[in-house]
What we know:
Layout: H1 19-24, H2 29-57, H3 65-89, H4 96-129, H5 135-159, E1 162-163, E2 170-171
Antiparallel strand pairs: 1-2
Amino acid sequence: MGEAKPRVSAVSAPERPPVWLRVVGHVPPEQFIRYILLSGWNTAFGYVCFFLINNWLSRFLTWYPYIVASLLSSLISISVAFLGYKWFVFRTKGNYFREWLRTMTVYSGSVLISIVALAPLVGLVRRATRLQNEAPYIAGAIISAIILISSFFGHRGFSFRKAAPGGVGPRASSTYL
């Protein structure tokens, strides 16, 4: 005899939106566009700083000059990015020093990951492409692109968060516009 068919209910649970939409759905599009524009510019600025510092350090440092260049260029570009995020993207009126420290905190994880990942990634690029001198620059560009996207949420929820209504406790506001 035949198998019993499972019963299908006419009422089904509502479909959940895709993961990417659940992650960015609460972000005002105008704010994210400003962030991408500023971050794109600052990524280019930071990359130029990395390129110039690495080029300069390579003349007298023979042991991993790109690691030192990564640290120095990160400090410079993060400080420049902070002002752009404060004035143009999140438009906060808070304490400059506190928000700068928070920005450094958000980026410190990225800088640490960058330093740890840079040497192996340079080695991988060198093996995969045979580009010996260009490998640190290619690896730096790859890491910069990853940091560009991942840091938005840290800045939005921590570096430039606004106080909750009534001034009690912090909250990440979607009314930065």
